Amino acid sequence: MSRNIRKTDNEHASPFEQIKRVNDAGYEFWSSREFAEVLGYGDYRNFEAVVEKAKIACFNSAHPIEDHFVDVTEMIEIGKGGQRAVKTMFMSRYACYLAIQNADPKKEQVAQGQTYFAVQTRRQELSDENIEEERRVLLRKEIRLHNVQLADAAKNAGVVEPLDYAIFQNHGYMGLYGGLRQDDIHRRKGLKKSQKILDHMGSTELAANLFRATQAEEKLRRDKVKGKKAANQTHQEVGAKVRKTIQELGGTMPENLPAVESIKKIETKQRKKLGGSTHPPN
To answer: What residues are paired with 9 via a beta bridge?
Structure first.
């Protein structure tokens, strides 16, 4: 968290909005001392116990505490124009939300704060959902494009018949999904027979599959791979390399990522907003 911060100057806003600080990068933070004062904690030491509970909740939610609670030293005004240094904490919006949930509910200001941060958090969630939808749509379009290019590279290697190409694709999935074939992944994700796996992937899983497809295509062409067996082996090796990278980075294995809402519903919603009706290719 940056310490070069400024307060908002909207005197008609919520008291929590009035003490909000924004750094040069546009990130919002609150001073724990000012936050405690607004909540009606006359003795800051009592609020420190609330913050500690909030930190535990943050940790239990798998969020890095240091990303949301930062210890700092600030100068405060004392009598006759003097100043003294006090320890305080800069808290993110999420940290404030957790603190509010652990504050004294009998205080009227706490009840107001719970409403304020619940609404603001939900707004942020909706914004994040929109970002995720945009990512999914973009990545799904890229995969459609690169699957065509991958099919062409596989054809040049000798994978010509539709059945052979299905086997070729399965080898890529087997590499990336730890030996699981397309049907296995389909069942594991709880999808219906009519539902396509790629249409129900989140952005993280789509990105992994896009990387698999682009790298497999490049390797087939670069190494001038010939023969169905060699092409299948190449695709599986590339998938396994992507899987190993995810593992080394501590990511979630793709087979453990949940199936999400069909991308087709999101694309339909976006077309309605734009007033269009063109259907995307499969």
So the answer is: none
Q: Answer whether 22's CB lies under 8 Å from 28's CB.
A: yes
In terms of residues, how long is the chain? 282
- Which among 38, 29, 39 has a CA at the least distance from the CA of 7? 29
Which among 130, 143, 146, 142 has a CA at the least distance from the CA of 266? 130
Spell out the residues 6+ positions from residue 172 whose beta carbon is closer than 8 angstroms to its own.
212, 213, 216, 235, 236, 238, 239
80 conformational bin, left if phi > 0, alpha if psi -120 to 50, beta if neither: left
Q: Which residues contact 43 (CB under 8 A, 6 or more apart)?
A: none
Between CA 143 and CA 46 the distance in angstroms is 54
**Residue 256 corresponds to which tokens in the numbers above?**
């453990």
Q: How many CA atoms lie within 13 A of 87 on its CB side?
A: 5
Q: Which residue has the tokens 């919603």?
A: 269
Dihedral of CA atoms 165, 175, 202, 159 in degrees, nearest 10, equals: -10
Tell which phi-psi region holds residue 201, choosing left (phi > 0), alpha (psi between -120 and 50) or beta.
beta
- What CA–CA distance (Å, rounded) separates 263 from 258? 14
State the residue for tokens 């409403």: 115
Chain segment 70-95, per-residue pLDDT in tens: 999 988 777 777 788 889 999 998 89
The answer, as to whether pTM is greater than 0.70, is: no
